[in-house]
Every structure is written in C-alpha cells, then in structure tokens.
Amino acid sequence: MNRQIMTGSLLCLIASMSWGAMFPVSHIALQQVNPLYFSFLRYFSVTLILIVLLWLKEGRAAFRFEGKGKTLLFFGTMGFTIYNMAVFQGQHAMGAAGTIVASIMEVLMPMISIAMIWVMTRKMPPKYTLISMMIALAGAILVITNGKWAFFTLAGQHLLPLLLIFAGVIGWVVYSMGGSHFAGWSTLRYSTLTCLLGTLVSFVVVATASAFNWVAVPDWQHVWSVKYEMSFMILLPGLAALLSWNAGIRMLSPLNGILFINFVPITTLVLMYFQGYTISRFELYGTLLVIFALLLNNMVQRSSLRPSDSPRRMRFRLDRRKSFQR
Fold first, then answer.
1. Which of 71, 91, 271, 312 could disulfide-link 102, Cβ–Cβ 3.0 to 4.6 Å?
2. What is the mean pLDDT of residues 237-258?
3. C-alpha distances in angstroms, 69 versus 72, 75, 182, 265?
4. How remote is the C-alpha of 233 from its chain's centroid?
5. pTM
6. Rounded distance, CA 216 to CA 34, Å?
7. What one-character DSSP code corresponds to residue 215?
8. pLDDT above 70 (res 157)
9. Can you tell me the distance from the alpha carbon of 105 to that of 275, in angstroms, rounded to the nearest whole number?
10. What is the Cα gyration radius of the chain?
C-alpha cells in the first residue's frame, strides 16, 4: 500500500507541475489563437494520439462504451470542454494577470471536491485531510499574493473571467471523480474515450460559434506561429498529465490525489523565477507550507495502515475511508 501511495503521489505531482507550466505557455499562444479554438485544437491532437495508443494496446474492443456512453459524454464534457474552454477564456480575458489568477484558482479544487463528497456521502472527511487541505490552500495563496491583500482587489475587477475560471475548475473536479465509475477499465481507456467525446463537444461549440460569427476561425499562419507552445501543451499538460493524473487519482482516490493540485501555482511561480523573477520570503514560506501539507497528508495516511495496528482497528479505518470515498 505504501508503494501504491508513493507511486500515485508521484503521478499526481507530475500532472500538477505540468499544468502549472501550461499557464505561462498558454498566455503566449492565446495572443495568436482564440481560447476556444486553442482548447479544441490542443485536445484534438491529444485525442488522435490516445486513439492510436489504445488501439495498439487494447484493441478495437476497448472502444466499446458498454452502455456507459452518456456517463462518458458527461465526464468528457466536464473535463475537456468546460474546464479547458472556460479556464483559457477567463485567463485570456484578464490579460497578463490571468496567468497567475488562473493558476491560483486551481487550489480551490480540493475544497470543492471535499464539499461535493461531503454532500454526496453525508460523511465528514478525515480530519487530517481537512487540515492538510487548509494548510496547502493557505500556502498557495501566500505564494501568489506575496502577502499583499491588493491581489484580491485586483481579482474583484474581473468578476466574469473569474466566474469562467471557477466554472472550469468545478468541471475538472467532476471529471477527476468520474474515474471511480469505471473501476474495471484501464486508465488509458477511460482517458481516451472521455477525451474523444469531450473533444467532439468542443468541436460543436467552436463550429456553432463560428457559424454565428461569434468567433473567427484562426488562419493557419496564426496556428503555426505558436507551434512550439502548442506542441508543449499537447505532449505535457495534455497527454502526459492526463494519463498521469487519472492513474494517480485511481491509486490515491480523488480526495487525496486532488490535494496535489496545489503544486500548480507553485510551478507557475518557479517558471517566473527562471524568467528573472525574485522570490520573496512570503513566497518561500508559502512553498514550504504546501510541501508540508502534502507530506503531512501522506504520512498520516500511511500510518493509518501500519501492520502494527490490530486487524479490527485496521478494518475500521479502511471501511471508514472507503465509505467516504464512494
């Protein structure tokens, strides 16, 4: 079990750091390509790669929906249409400040997921998870705001973009929980079919928007001008992060795995540092808080499954955790 937790933690960390890097990169690309088309073109490419991988690994039978088509469509739409289009649209609308704001909004995911599970199960999550989540949230906010309340004043001037980003964040939380409905499926299969259906919905969105002249179809020169940024977005935050995240979430459970999303704004800040940004003491303390919160959550989780525990006590803890995670 300890090995599974460590592997799942590493996978979620890889995904979160990849997503942290995508906001500075996408800010460049969005200057040339509309956010809606940028989201569609990105996952259209990811979908093609996933289809080839699934076909080679599991064969034609893996593409059957098995009566779960509507469920796959729902989670695919939430993860690959709502999340991507709403977040990038909101980020682009806020201009330069959108890079940081979109990044920090990601840290709301653990709070949203806990609230959703709490409502669905009517059972309170483990206290150590609540404490870890709050510490990580405080650390991430301290990093991004740099200890200055003026950040929230700035955010208040962009209500609509913030609502779009928030809607996208909820979409990804829902998608992250969707994997539990497909326990008998491989990570690759769930990722491929949801990405395929979500991308089809995204195509309907951009086609409709262009048909009514709400959004202009980008010309090939503009798309080609961001080929490097698009390649990065497809291979790392798109393909690698998606597979790592779904596999990690399955190993840790949505409640524990989604805590790693706090590394998204941390990674964004690190990239800014390499671009010449000077890290302050507030940002350093915030980074340490996030790391401490993740270590605390995993250490307590592992200790709850120690072999020294009596079988009765261990069974009680496992049953309590499973009943909450359902």
1. 91
2. 85
3. 5, 10, 12, 34
4. 14
5. 0.78
6. 8
7. S
8. no
9. 22
10. 20
